[in-house]
């Protein structure tokens, strides 16, 4: 009897646990339209994470697939990309809650001349109701072709005019015109991030009066970054050291140069790096890789004799795996003026 009693108790505990789990997951039992409404109040990253909680919530993120073909003997690849961008904007504008779209675009392979030879471009688009858009690109190329990206001053009104944040991942040469057109439609864009773009050698951005943050991370072929943005407050570069030219960026406050992958394929001289530092002289927060300052000191740069000072600098973050005597000397050489107050950090 005692064994049966224990078994009944065990079953009772399991039953209680199941009932408790069901009670705690009542949200998953709500109708899809109600679930969608709840998710619409979450920031995009948190909304996407809810897909791992249950099957009903996972179904909310099943991407809606759209197949479009723009092959025509009357249309160049560049013209087709512009038309595709307008169609994508129309679909994305219809989002009433965080939503994923899978665009399969057939575009003429020749950018400059009309062609019926089609190449497929896959774009996974994740749209948030908080005016945030993530675009992940794939064109099926095994070896990425090198390309340059030019993002001109936004001038067009479209379904993306009110977009605040744009995150571009794995942009390829085949998506170059599409991305340029999409950017030109983002009149009120405040945040731009570029990530993991193989083959991208340079980017030239001319922004309007809204862009406040620009981040480039893990674009290993990057050799040149040129930015003109009068309202830019934050600039972050992670990966290799490219030639960075920041013009018309007098409102910069926070700059991160996390150059953990070194010089890359580009050769530099001290004059180019000093020009970069001079363009950062008004920043308040500077995060910089220790090896860069160490390299400049070893090349004979005497920071105390330069024509500029970091007069507004409040916080200096030093990124390195260790702090030896040479690195300490480089840091002291850079600071060189004790009347300023810095918060030094070694980031491992």
Describe the structure.
The chain is α/β, with parallel strands linked by helices. About 30% of the residues lie in helices and about 25% in strands. The protein is built from 9 helices and 16 strands. The chain has helices at about 1-25, 30-40, 45-50, 55-60, 75-95, 175-185, 270-280, 290-300, 325-335, and strands at about 65-70, 100-110, 120-130, 130-140, 145-150, 165-170, 190-195, 200-205, 215, 225-230, 235-240, 245, 255-260, 285-290, 315-320, 345. The strands form 2 sheets. A 12-stranded mixed beta sheet has the order 1-2-3-4-6-7-9-11-13-14-15-16. The radius of gyration is 26 Å and the shape is elongated. The termini are far apart. The model is unreliable at about 1-10 and about 335-348 (pLDDT under 50).
